[in-house]
Design goal:
Length: about 100
């Protein structure tokens, strides 16, 4: 994670990020049923960029794959990728708390 040594202002921005990601992942779950690939792609793109900026590589990678599926109009493995992003988000949050000492 890239939060080591950053000022409290950065940690506050990080807190905002981690508060936004779970609802965004939930929206992907909700959009699954609609098969609205345009909306799925937009949400995945937002997650991908934000997660990459804060060093949540697993989340960013899964979101990038979801975005590619949406661009192709395919949903093969989409549910698995959402679950992977959710899992990786939890792992990253544990790392922030346990290994980096950042309380979110």
């Amino acid at each position: 994670m890239i939060a080591d040594g950053y000022p409290p202002e950065f940690v506050e921005i990080l807190r905002e990020f981690v508060a936004e990601i779970p609802p965004m992942l939930d929206s992907l779950v909700a959009l699954e049923g609609t098969k609205d690939m345009e909306k799925i792609g937009r949400v995945a793109h937002q997650i991908k960029g934000s997660a990459a900026n804060f060093g949540f590589r697993g989340v960013s990678s899964a979101a990038a794959e979801i975005e590619m599926l949406a661009k192709r109009g395919s949903w093969e493995n989409g549910s698995t990728l959402i679950a992977q992003a959710q899992r990786d988000f939890g792992i990253s949050m544990d790392e922030l708390r346990d290994k980096r000492g950042i309380e979110i």
